[in-house]
Amino acid sequence: MENELIQYFTKYSDEIRYRLIRILIVFAILFVLFTIFRIEDVTILGHQFLFIYPDPYSNIGAQVLSVLETHILPPNTQLLIIKPIDGIMADFYTCMALSIIMSMPFIIYQISKFITPALKKSEITLLKSIIIPASLLFFAGVFMGLYFVAPELFRIFTAFDIGLGAATTLSISSFISFLFMYIIAFGLSFEIPIFMVYLSKFGIVRSSTWRESWRYAVIGSLFYGMIFSPGVTGFTMIVIAIPMIILYFCGVYFSKRVEKSNID
Questions:
Q1: Cβ-based neighbours of 104, under 8 Å, separated by 6 or more
Q2: Angstrom distance (rounded) from CA 124 to CA 169
Q3: DSSP code for 118
Q4: What is the sign, positive or negative, of the torsion defined by CA atoms of 37, 74, 71, 177?
Q5: Average of pLDDT values for 90-105?
Q6: Predicted local confidence at residue 21, as pLDDT
Q7: Residue 156 DSSP code
Q8: DSSP 8-state class, residue 96
């Protein structure tokens, strides 16, 4: 088995490297854009336009971080710079996270291009139809995590801090590392229905198998939440696991419908 895996990766190593390089190029372009430029309103002849211009100290990452701080953190919560490089690292982490999020459709596309040589023509057409819904679901997960879940999480955390008599302060590096790890994990968890539906569409996994394996899905969701939950607290783990479990049962329902349409 080990020799087969080695042979497989040796055979496709050039293709894997080619796809990874293309992904890294797109990621690098976005990272440079978010790191070096900022977005500014410019009024021309009474009309407002958005322009980008070089400003590495107040770049797009810093602008996004400021918006997130205002939207997510409860009032009177102050972000602190503990180490001299905390501000720089927080800005870089924000730009990296934005680059990953914005390049996700291209990442999905490159993965699909890597898989297509092993598929039939009809399966290739079907696989191409995954790119848009998979991207939309990822962005929906990121949006839901940022807009709805994260503010409530930090509100609860702050309430506990106040209950303990602690000051409502937070290091900027802790805030960024917690937030984006959580949000990206949240976005990836929204890919579950797509994964299930298309495996059933290809005839690889029957919908009945998904239905019978729901207990393993619940355990797997909790395990996923434990791995990607910053701080590995039971509460944050459950916040990730519950949407995953709901999405899994949505996947069971839609995979059954897809399987039925294949028969018809």
A1: 135, 138, 139, 187
A2: 52
A3: G
A4: positive
A5: 94
A6: 95
A7: H
A8: H
Amino acid sitting at position 124: I
Contact present, 150 and 182 (Cβ < 8 Å): yes
Residues in the chain: 264
Per the rule left: phi > 0, alpha: psi between -120 and 50, beta: everything else, 54 is: beta
Letter for the amino acid at 114? F
Label residue 231 by pLDDT band (50, 70, 90): low
Residue 90: C-alpha distances to residues 24, 77, 143, 177, 252 (Å): 21, 17, 20, 8, 39
Angle 28-34-35 from CA coordinates, rounded to 5°: 85
The per-residue pLDDT for 10 is 64
Asked if 168 contacts 203 with a C-beta cutoff of 8 angstroms, the reply is no
Q: 67 vs 177, which has greater pLDDT? A: 67
Confidence of residue 139 (pLDDT cuts 50, 70, 90): very high
Partnered with residue 49 across adjacent β-strands are 42
Cα distance between residue 39 and residue 58, in whole Å: 9
Residue 79 three-state SS:
strand
Closest C-alpha to 129, from 82, 229, 197, 35:
197
Start-end of H helices in 145-233: 150-163, 172-189, 192-201, 207-212, 214-228
